[in-house]
Amino acid sequence: MPHKLGPRALKSILIVGGGSAGWMSAAAIAHATRGACSITVIESDEIGIVGVGEATIPPIKLFNQTLGIDEVAFIQATQGSFKLGIEFVDWARIGNRYFHPFGKYGVEFDAAPVHHFWLRARAEGDATPWQDYSMAWAAARDDKFDRPTRDPRLIQSTFDYAYHFDAALYAKFLRAYAEERGVARVEGRITSVHQHPDSGFIRGVALSDGRRFEADFFVDCSGFRGLLIEDALKTGYDDWTHWLPCDRAIAVPCARSTALTPYTRSTARDAGWQWRIPLQHRVGNGHVYSSRFIDDDRAEQVLLSNLESDPLAAPRRLRFVAGRRKLHWSKNCVAIGLASGFLEPLESTAIHLIQSGITRFLALFPGSEPDPVSVAEYNRLTQIEFERVRDFIILHYHASTRDDSELWRYTRAMSIPDGLAYKLEQFSQAGNIVSDGLELFQNPSWLAIFIGQDVIPERYAPLVDLRNTEEFGAYLASLRRTMSQAASAMPTHQDFIDKNCRAKAI
Predict the structure, then answer these.
(1) Taking the model in full, what pTM does it have?
(2) What range defines the domain where residue 55 resides?
(3) What do you get for the CA distance between the two ends of the chain, in Å?
(4) pLDDT attached to residue 3
(5) What is the distance of C-alpha 370 from the center of its chain?
């Protein structure tokens, strides 16, 4: 049987929009295609980017490493800092704090997971917080930081890290990277999109000055609007505001007045939550809220009254709808970033969803005529990813015991997706973590939020009752002691940056 040749190779790609999504896409595609495909980015200086500071999760390191980006150069270019996790304040209840660390808890020492031994110890009167078994937290609570060791025998190998950085500077950094590899940038504002009259495939775009640009394939990085994926291709949108009612945000930077914390902070407010992202040169702040429960002016007052110093710029207001496109890839166009969908940045997933979308696109990279089978697989996997991240974020709201304001009463009482309901039932009754290989957030993350939000299982694994209390109690104490000793030997986050990757003052 003769071999069936594949489709003609893709010769040109047009990326609509710059920012983090556009330039991450351009850099990654340029790296992967090695000059064999023409890549053009059209962006307008008239259109600003969303963030005033960006927090990430650990997979961002792999993205940068794949592109051959030096970590020190990246940190210096973006005024970046390191991130060991997220501190949640007032989420479970007012006055409560807990930490979502990067990495695992403790070291597995038995057939039963560590948290079941913690649950038994707790039932016997041990009041040690669960987060005290996290190496990331042992460092973060004292504002310490160092890179993890690669020696799996050491407790310093059990944590991970990500970054905080200036999103605009990251886009600028990646633009330079992409342009060095042949990517062309066009300044201009797109006024119309031209499609094939029969197939509906996109042929090209026209700019306000009359210039036209055509390509074989298009990447929509136009932000919330979805200039190609929605305005032109009309893919539709799944609205999730009944589960995630926050639909507005206000962002503003300020000067840092405290130690350089190696973590992001999220503080629950009456009608939403406030973020704090520490960079080298400033702090990024924002208030994410629901317009159903607070008006814009009051929301801005809440933000400004809770800054650690005077604002460095005027607050910027954003509107959004939590959800995703019904199709993330349609015809000869894939949507990346906010054009693909939006989930509030509670768990710092915005950059990751860009990264995973690009990685998935490269794995299913099209010829001149996209394969419907590959398009379907891209959409299937992207839908799963969005829905599972969505469920993880919903958990933070739904599991809260707060009833002091309308938002929290609503999210406590609302129905939740079936998949999340099953996870919640499994953990609350038996301490079981239900996940699979397609989960972005693995068992330690679910444990952090479940226990942090006061979801304590009714029982622990029966196997634990076959173990001697004194033996595992001594081991748990040894874990805490070893972590504290390891953390005390680390430099402060500020000292680490000053020694290794201090950025030039802006």
Answers:
(1) 0.95
(2) 12-81+165-236+326-373
(3) 65
(4) 47
(5) 29
Regarding whether 112 and 54 lie in a shared domain, the answer is no
Residues 484, 411 share a domain:
yes
**Which of 286, 291, 317, 281 lies closest to 302 in space, CA to CA?**
286
Q: Please state the domain count of the chain.
A: 2
123-132 confidence digits (pLDDT tens): 999 999 999 9
Pairing of strands 217-220, 333-335: parallel
Handedness of CA 110, 115, 119, 121 (dihedral sign): positive
Please indicate, yes or no, whether residues 75 and 109 belong to a single structural domain of this protein. Answer: no
Q: What sign does the CA torsion over 226, 229, 232, 235 have?
A: negative
Question: Comparing C-alpha atoms, which of 164, 174, 172 is closest to residue 282?
Answer: 164
Strand 12-16 relative to strand 38-43, pairing: parallel
Confidence grade of residue 48 (pLDDT, cut at 50, 70, 90): low
- What distance separates the 2 farthest-apart alpha carbons in the chain? 78
CA distance linking residue 160 with residue 155, whole number of Å:
12
Contacts of residue 271, Cβ cutoff 8 Å, sequence gap at least 6 = 289, 290, 293, 294, 299, 405, 406, 407
72 shares a domain with 24: yes
For the record, the structure tokens of 130 come out as: 């669960």
Amino acid at 286: G
Give tens-digit pLDDT for 197-245. 999 999 999 999 999 999 999 999 999 999 999 999 999 999 999 999 9
- DSSP, collapsed to helix, strand or coil, labels residue 504 as coil
Residues 66 and 39 in one domain: yes
Helical ranges in 130-288 per DSSP H:
135-140, 167-180
Give the phi and the psi of residue 297 in degrees, each rounded to 5: -65, -45
